[in-house]
Amino acid sequence: MRRMEFGVLGPFEALVDQRPTPIPRGRQRVLLATLVLHTGEVVGVDELLERMWGDRLPGSPRGALQICLTRVRRWLDVQGEGAARLLTTESAGYVLRLPPQNVDLLRFRDSLRAAEAAAERGDLVGQWAALATVLSLWRGPVLADVHSDSLQQDVIPRITEEYLRALEWRHEVGFALGRHDRLVGELLALTRKYPYRERYWGQLMRALCRCGRQVEALDAYRRVRTRLREEIGVDPGPELRRLHVAILRNDPAGVPNGAR
User: Fold this and answer.
1) pLDDT band at residue 68 under the 50/70/90 scheme
2) 236's torsion region: left (phi>0), alpha (psi -120 to 50) or beta?
3) CA–CA distance, 74 with 81 (Å, rounded to integer)
């Protein structure tokens, strides 16, 4: 059987023997994406119906699901003889069986586990390397070209949060390794992209401060405070406020130096 791989950490993609191949559109695309997200796990009929149609179910939802499943199996067989056997029927639903290394989301999580193991050993360089692998798998917004309100609201935000936390972790490791100057540009971009994520603002302030750019660090605090007050009606949280005071007082002990 030819090697089939899927990517969900960005636009939905399928590779056959490392070459891109077109993916079905419409409901079949949503069905396949849902099964890939749960590779190796049984996905129940109700969940598949929710992901594919939400509250706009067709007249015969199970029949419509069976038609889509049949078409996805045909598509799989076109990619490689016998590939339809990858999609099996179980008593509780359906499961797509692929080696974990053939799905970028599973490789992403496997590399996160490698970073956690390095953290348990106290290996900062090992954490940095594993997290670099994690982040290299990210190609953009998860499944942005898969049109499913249910996936976009219930599933994709959780995966995106895994990525954002991995970024935060990498920054902390970078601080502990003394790589503050390498992080400033990335953190500036992240605070523009996620302006309400206070952890990134705090990390930006710390990176600037450790680079001797206290004035810019204080200006970053002013900008996030203004945005939060004007757009949400709240002040920065206690962690960010404490960091601001430490920078004002030129207190290095109040500016954490990283490590998880």
Assistant:
1) very high
2) beta
3) 10
Report which of 193, 135, 200, 194 is spatially closest to residue 168, judged by C-alpha positions. 200
Query: Which tens digits make up the pLDDT trace of 139-158?
Result: 999 999 999 999 999 999 99
- Tell whether 9 and 95 lie within a shared domain: yes
Average pLDDT score over the chain: 94
| CA pair distance 221, 206, nearest whole angstrom | 11
Q: Domain residues for 28?
A: 4-102
pLDDT higher than 70, residue 43: yes
Neighbour count for residue 155 (Cβ, 10 Å): 20
Q: Bin 17: left if φ > 0, else alpha if -120 < ψ < 50, else beta.
A: left
Residue 59 lies in a domain: yes
What domain count does the chain have? 2
Cβ atoms < 10 Å from Cβ of 142 = 25
pTM of the predicted protein model = 0.90
Integer-rounded Cα radius of gyration of the chain: 22
Residue count of the chain:
260
pLDDT band at 54 (very low <50, low <70, confident <90, very high): very high
Q: Which amino acid is at 136?
A: S
